[in-house]
Amino acid sequence: MPRSGPPTTNGNHWITEWFTPYERHSHQIKKYLLKKKTAFQSAILADTYSFGRCLILDGEMQSAQLDEFIYHESLVHPSLLLHPNPREVLVLGGGEGATVREILKHKTVRRATMVDIDGEVVDFCIKYLKPWHQGALTARRTRLIIGDAKAFVETTPEKFDVILSDLPSPIEAGPACLLYTVEFYKILKARLTPGGIFALQAGSGNLLQLELHQTLAATLRKVFKKVYPYYAHVPSFDVPWAFLLCSDERNPQGLSSVEVNKRLARRTTGKLKFYDGDAHVGLLHIPKHLRASIRRETRVITNSHPVYFFK
Prior knowledge:
The chain has helices at 68-82, 98-103, 119-128, 130-133, 149-155, 182-189, 211-221, 257-267, 277-284, 288-296, and strands spanning 8-9, 14-20, 23-37, 42-48, 52-57, 60-64, 88-93, 111-116, 142-146, 160-166, 192-204, 226-234, 239-247. By secondary structure, it is of the alpha/beta class. The protein has a seven-stranded mixed beta sheet, sandwiched between helices. The protein has a six-stranded antiparallel beta sheet with strand order 1-2-3-4-5-6, with no helix packed on it. The radius of gyration is 18 Å and the shape is globular. The relative contact order is 0.15.
């Protein structure tokens, strides 16, 4: 997922992401497949020496062939296994199709609806990132909508058992800023069925970049009774990546390793590489300093007072 700052390249074909003005991570490029400015963002598809094929949007690493499974399994499975019978699932964003791929492993799911604003990115992901989507975006149980996710949530009369936000992190002038506000989350909550669950990628868990994550947690506490942070280290991001699981009544910490494995065996098809019962317990048991930072935060993100991932 996106992290920070614009990339730089040099004659040796490196792309550099800046975490802060003083910290950076560089990837050496073996081959560029596509460089494109869409109506909404700058997009790069490239083969790298360390992480294989990568999708980079607005200068941020979105997804890498070597480790995308860590991010996508972490985003999807805790929520879908926690819900007793997830049938209708909504994805905001999700251009590569890997989030839908993981959703469709759940036998209870009747339909996965994915709403992504950038049809150009979705089209070239379908063409170039087949190991990611594995046909999920054209599957019988998938409804793909190219459109504004904010407008969809605001206007649809439909209800969903689980909503997953796989949007780019908010950057100034980026397309996703208004989908990270308390105003939007109140509308989104109204689109959940009783007992529904909302989960989102919630920025970096890096100590140097915690502002967005902890303010998102404080913001969502104004909307949901229960907000649970969890983290997974994604090597191509070079940081622990943060997620938030939100509900009025469901507690993912109440699922034991044994129970998670039983539900996986009973309710899913296909193999997982990262997530199982032990991983679930580990994801949700977070260190003391992160718990303290999240508890202390009181700022709320609003339409008039946004918080950006990178300044």
